[in-house]
Structure formats: C-alpha cells, structure tokens
C-alpha cells in the first residue's frame, strides 16, 4: 500500500488561509469518507483534528475544515495563527482494511 | 483522564526481538479497537497494525506483516506488540493509539525502539 501524496511544505502569513492536499487512489481516499487529518507539533504526539473528511473532534478550532473530491482530500486552515505551525498528516481507510498515511506536510507561519 | 503509556523500547541488535506494552486508563479499554503507529527519526507516520476489541481480528502493514504480532489483554487494560526479525528500518518511535471507527483519536507519547549493532 503506497503512502498518500502530500506537499512537503506550505506556508502562509497570519490571518491567511492555506490548503493542504492529500492525493490517493480509488482504493483509499476516493473510495471512502474515512479520511482523517492529524496535527503534530515538534516533540509531541500527533493529535486528531478532522475525521470522516470534515468532522471536528470536540475542542478543535472551527478554523480547521476539510473537503474531498475524487481521489484528493484537502485540509483548509483559515485565519492562520502562529500556533498552527506544525506537521500535518492525512490518513485514509483502504480497500484492504488497513490505514495509510500521507507523507506529511510542514506548515510554516511566516 | 485518558492515558496511554507505552513501555518496552530499547536498543536491540539486528535480527533481535522485543515486546512493547501499552497501559491504558481513563476509558473502557475493551470497547475499542487499538492501533500501533510508528515514526522513524525525522520522518512521517507509518501505520503498523490494528487489533479489534476482543483480539479476534488483526491487520498489519506490509512492512511488518509476518514479523510483528499485536495482542491485547482486556483484563489488564493492556496492548502489546511483539517485534521479531528486527532490522535497522524498524528503528522508530512506536505509538499506541486508541481507535474509534477508522480514526485514531488518542495517542500515547511513544516508546523508542533502536535497532543497532
């Protein structure tokens, strides 16, 4: 099972919106609504920020949202803040009943 | 408060074996699927394996299939990962993760496995 494809890095200024893409195949992202996103700050464990494409766990900011079209899912962060600087990973359920992650995207807040 | 505490990470020689443990508290452990996810130094996340609520079903990533075995003891609120035939590519921080449907909704802090001669 190949990893999902994410850009290695994205950047934005405070207050701006950014989008991180996550591209897979019809056997994972394109075939299921089970796409999740995780945020990882340096030295910390990952944290779930979105699940089933666009659902936020309790306590996660409304500035985080998601979408999916065909084989590509997207994480949108609006009103960028300094605290959003972190690594972001997508994951998807797959047709072989396993999970697969994207390679990760480093977000830099300028 | 929910807690997942991993232990067992050590330095081991190539070809060696070890067992990781994860002690769960703060939630009804036996109700949930549990996963192991690893992260090689400076690299991204890699899903390792999953075990369902009663241990009756397990699935593994291709890179560990046939070498790693996941198990659980619901009476002890504990998750385990037996690692065998280790190579340097298995050097990583191993996270114990609580599952909910297909999402990984709570992560431990990880235990470091280093495979080196």
What labels describe this entry?
heterodimer; A: 110 residues; mainly beta; six-stranded mixed β-sheet; globular; B: 117 residues; seven-stranded mixed β-sheet; 11 strands; 53% strand
Biggest chain contact: A-B, 27 and 22 residues
Q: Can you tell me the overall shape of chain A?
A: globular
Binned strand content of chain B: over 45%
- How many helices of chain B? The count is 0
Output the number of helix runs of chain A.
Answer: 0
Count every beta strand of chain A, where a strand is a DSSP E run of 2 or more residues.
9
C-alpha Rg of chain B (nearest Å): 13 Å
Number of strands of chain B: 11
Overall outline of chain B: globular
Write the layout of secondary structure elements.
The complex is a heterodimer of chains A (110) and B (117).
Chain A lengths: L8 E4 L5 E6 L11 E6 L6 E4 L13 E6 L2 E6 L8 E8 L5 E3 L3 E5 L1
Parallel strand pairs in A: 1-9
Antiparallel strand pairs in A: 2-6, 3-4, 3-7, 5-6, 7-8, 7-9
Chain B lengths: L2 E5 L3 E2 L5 E8 L8 E6 L5 E7 L6 E3 L7 E6 L4 E6 L8 E9 L2 E5 L3 E5 L2
Parallel strand pairs in B: 2-11
Antiparallel strand pairs in B: 1-3, 3-8, 4-5, 4-9, 5-6, 7-8, 9-10, 9-11
